[in-house]
Amino acid sequence: MASPTPAVIVFGLVLALMACAWLFTRKGPNQTLIRTSLMLALMCCYLMWMVTYLAQVHPLERPRRAPNMGSESF
């Protein structure tokens, strides 16, 4: 069984980047829009990575071997 450590480490990294986006966004009329856009983009990238990672670690269907086609091997 695979360890959840990579998903937790990457989640911590994404949270740190989201905190930086929150704290270091320049003041201005569009500050809230910029913060929201950055944080949403980071979260979407994390979710896409996590779904891809988990699909490879725990596939829904087991890999199947092709039937042996004689003694020929390539």
From TrEMBL:
InterPro entries membership: ATPase_V0-cplx_e1/e2_su (IPR008389)
Topological relation to the membrane, as annotated: Multi-pass membrane protein
GO molecular function annotation: proton-transporting ATPase activity, rotational mechanism
Biological process terms in GO annotation: vacuolar acidification
Residue stretches in coiled coil: none
Subcellular location: Endomembrane system
GO cellular component: endomembrane system; vacuolar proton-transporting V-type ATPase, V0 domain
One Pfam family named in its UniProt record: ATP_synt_H
Domain of life from the UniProt record: Eukaryota
Annotated TM spans: 6-25, 37-55
Main localization of the protein described in the UniProt heading: membrane
Keywords, in A-Z order: Hydrogen ion transport, Ion transport, Membrane, Transmembrane, Transmembrane helix, Transport
Family assignment from sequence similarity: Belongs to the V-ATPase e1/e2 subunit family.
Protein name, as recorded: ATP synthase subunit H domain-containing protein
Organism per entry: Phanerochaete sordida
